[in-house]
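@channel anyone free to eyeball this complex?
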Amino acid sequence: MGRSDRRSSLGFWGVFTLLVVIIAACTGSTTSTTGDTGGDTAATTAPDDTEEPATTDAPDDTPGDTSGGEVKNPGLYVHAADDEPLSLDPAQVAAGEAGETIILQVYERLVEIGPGGPELIPGLSTEVPSVENGLISEDGLTYTFPIREGVVFHDGSELTADVVKFSWDRVLEMDLPESNASFLADQIESTEVDGNNFIVHLEERNAAFLSSVVTSAVASIVSQQAVEENGGVTAGQPNQFMSSNMVGTGPYRLVAWNRGENIQLEVFEDYWGEPAKLDVRIDQVADSDVRALGLQAGDYDSIETDPTFITDLEGAEGVEIYSGDFLLEPVHMGMNMNIPEGGLPPEDTIPLDFFHDVNVRRGFNLAFDYEAFVEGAMAGLGAPIPHYLPQGMLGYDDSLPRFERDLAAAEEAFREAGYWDEGFTMTVLAEEGGIFEIAGLVLADSMAELNPNFHIRVLAVVEAQFDAAHAEDPFPYAAWIKNADPFADPAALFDAYIHPDGEWGSVHGFRNAYADPDRIASLVDEAAVELDQDRRVEIYQELAHILYQDPVWLIPGNERALMAHRSWVQNFQMNPLWPRPSLKFQYFDK
Amino acid sequence: MVDVPIPETTRIRVEGPWIVRLRRFAEITRRVLRNPTTLAGLLIIVALLSLAILAPVLTEPNVPDPYQMPRDWGARDAPPGTPGHPLGTTSTGGDVFYGVLWGARTSLQLSVIVVGITVTVGTIVGSLAGFIGGKLDEILMRTVDILLAIPELIFALAIAAVLGPSFGNIIFALSVVFWVKYARIIRGQIIHVKQNEYVDAARVIGDSKLKIYLKDVLPNSITPVIVQATMDMGGIVLTAATLSFIGLSEAGLAEWGVLVSDGQAGISAGKWWASTFPGLMVFLWALGFNLVGDGMRDVLDPRTESR
Amino acid sequence: MQIREYLIRRLMIFPLIIVGTSIIVFVLSRVGGNPVGIYLEHEMSAEEVAQLEERYGLNEPLPVQYFAWARGVLTGDMGWSGVSAQPVTEALIDRIGATLELAIFAAIVAITLGVGLGTFGGARRDRWPDHMTRVLSISGASMPIFWFAILLLIVFWVNLGWFSTGRSDPTIFESIPHPTNIYTLDAILAGNFKALLDALHHLILPSVTLGFGATAIIARMMRSSLVEELNEDYVDAARAKGLPERLVLRRHARRNALIPTVTVIGLGFGFLLQGTVVVEIIFRWPGLGRWMADAVLRGDQATIMAYVLFTSVLFLTVNLVVDIMYAYLDRRVVLGA
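replying in thread with the prediction:
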């Protein structure tokens, strides 16, 4: 009964399975984004296994097989990133946001940070202004930039000093809340054009004007023609054309932005300088394991590398790990000395002036298990820092004091403060899903290990909620965990994070914490306007010593700049002063 | 004990003294269990419930909160068979076996609470709609239609998104989404009873509405409600695990969906155990309850009776 | 006529239900407070937050916001999607092709497997094939999609290396134009066999994963309605006449059994719709489901509202169409209850 019935079902499924196998076989070795053939090497860590294609015929126009051998995608550089821009408009992009790196490749600025380190090189200005060459006035308030001639934009229009002024004015007029416009606005009193020169008048002397402000994404030069033909400039409103299109002078032009998928750049033929050699495609790949597999398969030339995958990638065929300097965005926990009445979650048992007591603040810093955090979340590729100088920043020195776990000292501090016997419960706000949440969990474990009555609740929320809470003033939690914004120069860093009346100082009430807030204020202010770099180093190091005794942060650690890439990439180099991923593709070759 | 003849018909209208009803239920149970697949489902359920109940005995409860996965930064990503970790550990050093057991406990709590809430709310709404009828009935049923327009998971997602990632919010979200079927069942029963001439006779005699409700509506609603509740015990845990997998639960919670999600990143590197075992548990839980519910429905739904 | 009354009633209520759904969706989006969070960068001041609230109309009273949004839905402007940094309408159109393609192929899997299994079991009622079919289809309904997907990936991707995640090989994908954004269709239109193969290759695992659950519903329905059909008098008559069993099955019973099976298309469709969220996350599929998941995790209410409304309207429409079809196909049905 129903034998033919069974046969016809069987027949259908037989054909279906056969089709599946055929399709799998035919397209097996050309498959894209991740390791069909990468499967073997991914699953083991034995570096000697050369993988064999798991399937049979490869159509003939595939360039070579997928292990370290022949270069895949010649002429095209593929980077796998883990986050996506929100806007490609210099007047709209925020500090530390993914759009900055695209702006770095496609737009240019008057002065650029060179590949070799913090040294500045000329960009659209023919010279880097300095006191010596007379382009910075004696009083440090006037900068003159001679504009390069013969430079064309991607739309064919010409670069002039007027266009430069237009670009900067545009940012200031639009003054978008999500952008970095305040960075420019705070410094600049006025700008003018004199023939072929662009002249800037500052409000007050700033040692970091060139290195921090002029090289930042917000100061990029855009095509006036493109803006005026597409929506112009409206105060307070974004320009939709400029948000998704780019018309600059850089070595790359934007081909396409496929949201959630990739961003495609191609070499700009009429670039004024040394042309780039490879087209670029930046793939948006949120999963770190998929990125790792794609790198091993050769589909990616470099990937945003999660430290916890390093052990799998080390020794993989054709893969090299670039582990250079440190990034400039340490993970930190902020302490709130300005807690509003009734502001804490109901579970918290701490008083409003909890962090006013230096013993509490030092106690936290001494109890934290830095090793567990660095070994765990950073897979060993990071280190604690002195307050508040990340490695590689002006003023940093290995000899500066930094906190290490010392449970005995921590106990003493908390006994002094009077919390040892009773204990306490405190909520920490963190962004969920990543390193910040892990830092919170390590903190909770560290404190519980010190004293089982010390309860830390880690409240992990989505980014949007975290940002919304963060914008509140006063801040309704005792502590929060995030990373610092990347600043190229300590002046802006200290002003934001250390100065008693600075951005965080005012919101978190640093004046309630510091033993001598005025002293700290005067030191920070002095170093900001001092043009003698050696004197500045002295000041910052003095501050580091003061802050070791009187901290207002807890700094779990700072990550190393880390990137896994294919060995066929030539001239691979990172510079942490460039926005993440700290790469400039124009220098690479395959 | 009164000797009352057991009615011949195999239909399940339950009428008469309680003894008869008890015997009826006993026979139904026997018929339900005669089906081997249903029996298998029951065994699975019993096994899972035992795991849930015995969790604090079989593993060392984590302090201070046993429903948080223990973290051991020194023993991360250990494969199954490592001493002390029969099913391996996760990327933060949590014992997978611990997660499996305490996850069962979490699932039990979750499903019992949600079923409790949904049955109660559904019964109340359905009763109101059925008894009062008229305008209220129209309004309530239109609201039900509107709520049913949104696919369940998506509705639960949207609610949980607004409330924030926490287990309590998932319970709330699921309760809001899952009560509707019960309202329909109860209301349907009331309308059916209303149309039944037996009730007209009772009304003539003067039985109060409440008595009709207790004597006729409730007992006859019990079976479809029980069948639905059984299926929901499985479905709720499945949906909750999916929500947790997407990321709407608290971090570090000993819950199967959270564990699968955390373990997902490791599979490409060969670390399959952290997501395979918890996922298997979700499957078994849903399977067990679905098999039993399905078996019950087969017996109790006259349409598929064998002739 | 009863059917006509029923249909007219359903059609009249339809827009009301949609409006009711839109109200629920809107209220839900505002219950958690001001949805401006997704547009913020960290460390913004209160004035900057206020500026953004004004830009997105979030400082208006709620009813005003609702009507503005509702009007926008009808005119094609559903706000700004924070997670994709583009207008919501644009983001929706960009992604719908991918999800549609996935759903269609999953439906093909579900229908063929479901009807086949249902017939297999229904024709051999209460014997082991029936039990096996029943267990298989209940397994399908109990199977957590995310787990099934991960299992398939572990076997077919990590270990065997036959398949991978993603929708395409970017190099091949970029080599053809995309008028419809349905990769298989675009490949056929471009006459590019390699692209077609690439598309199919990437479709196999996700559609099997997605379709597997819906298979259970369809198989279940097919099996029970086939059983019912086989009990009908005309079947006994045909058998008495000496017609071979398979003819009875194929020509009459199965065809009639398909009719009620059509009703579960609505249910199965809902299942597919919800399944896409998880499947797209795991297989990195650039469709609506993943967009929604991102929005949910990051609190992007504009996207969530658009997605929930869109899927609800779709779901409602499919159910209405199925009910109408069923009402015409089988006059025995008692309409309305």
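from a first look: The mean pLDDT of chain C is 85.
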